[in-house]
Design brief:
Helix content: 40-55%
Largest sheet: 2 strands, parallel
Number of domains: 1
Number of strands: 2
Strand content: 15-25%
Order of helices and strands: EHEH
Amino acid sequence: SRAVVFVGRAGEQDLADEARRLGLWVLADLPWPLPIEPWRAALQRIKTVTSATHAG
């Protein structure tokens, strides 16, 4: 599967929703400027996913 993180918006189009419709796993859809706590949570999800993927 493919995972993506979105930061900011591209006008009115919701690229995160479009990515989900295309079957991508949206780990985070964050605003810009990037708030620290949501960014930390997204990084933790990425770390968890990559650890599980490489564990075995």
